[in-house]
Design brief:
By secondary structure, this protein is of the alpha/beta class. 36% of the residues lie in helices and 12% in strands. It has a 6-stranded mixed sheet with strand order 3-2-4-1-5-6.
Length: 237
């Protein structure tokens, strides 16, 4: 048996401000740090040895993982991969979701956020929010940095990375990934074989570990959110 633990980062500053964040690098709030601490304690109760850790390149996911590792008293290095980043929200980046709902309509905002193939307009490359202007992305080839993404685009980069770099690590080993709402949503679509409508409805709570138990064939035999009070429906279990 092996375990895959997926953790969406704790609440970030822009989560609190209801802003489209995407690839912008923002920190955790105090509540987000507390959520990460609780995630660590819940994982610790399971007494599972974690062999490999992965995160995106983004602070909110990195710091969530560092808090969890501190509670687990585990000093292993973790892999940072831009492919596990949040979805790029294009020209919506930095805008307030509530204000945009009033301006263009709630249905349109929902379409931008959750539809499978629709993507917002491209973000101007001169914007300080564009990844080419954010230091942590300097080592990524510019032609690979998106100006905007659909959920489908996010799914493709996340699952390709998972197949190439993470899946083989799960053979009788345990893996923890600290990432984002849409990158975890993308992984869940693949792991649970969700269709394009189901993936749009899937909610991923902040700082609540989703623990997935797999057999030797990497078939899922059990899964659960560890914080029962904030558990979300995976649509298949």
């Amino acid at each position: 048996m092996s375990f895959l633990i997926l953790v969406r980062h704790g609440q970030s500053i822009w989560n609190l401000e209801k802003r489209f964040t995407g690839w912008v690098d923002v920190e955790l709030t105090k509540k987000g740090e507390t959520e990460a601490e609780k995630a660590g304690l819940l994982i610790k109760e399971k007494n599972i040895e974690i062999n490999f850790y992965y995160s995106s390149l983004q602070l909110r996911a990195n710091n969530t993982l560092k808090i969890i590792q501190k509670i687990l008293n585990d000093k292993k290095d973790f892999v940072k991969a831009w492919q596990l980043n949040e979805r790029h929200y294009g020209a919506l980046t930095g805008l307030n979701k509530t204000e945009m709902g009033q301006k263009i309509g709630e249905d349109k905002v929902y379409e931008f956020r959750r539809s499978w193939e629709v993507k917002p307009e491209a973000l101007d490359k001169k914007s300080p929010y564009h990844p080419i202007n954010i230091k942590i992305y300097n080592d990524i080839p510019k032609e690979m940095i998106p100006d905007t993404e659909s959920l489908k685009n996010t799914y493709e980069r996340v699952t390709n990375y998972f197949e190439k770099e993470i899946k083989t690590k799960l053979e009788n080993k345990n893996v923890l990934i600290s990432a984002h709402g849409n990158s975890i949503r993308a992984l869940c679509k693949k792991l649970f074989n969700l269709d394009n409508t189901q993936i749009s409805s899937l909610e991923i709570p902040t700082g609540n570990p989703l623990i997935i138990e797999m057999n030797k064939s990497l078939k899922i035999v059990k899964c659960e959110y560890l914080d029962k009070k904030r558990a979300k429906n995976l649509l298949v279990f």
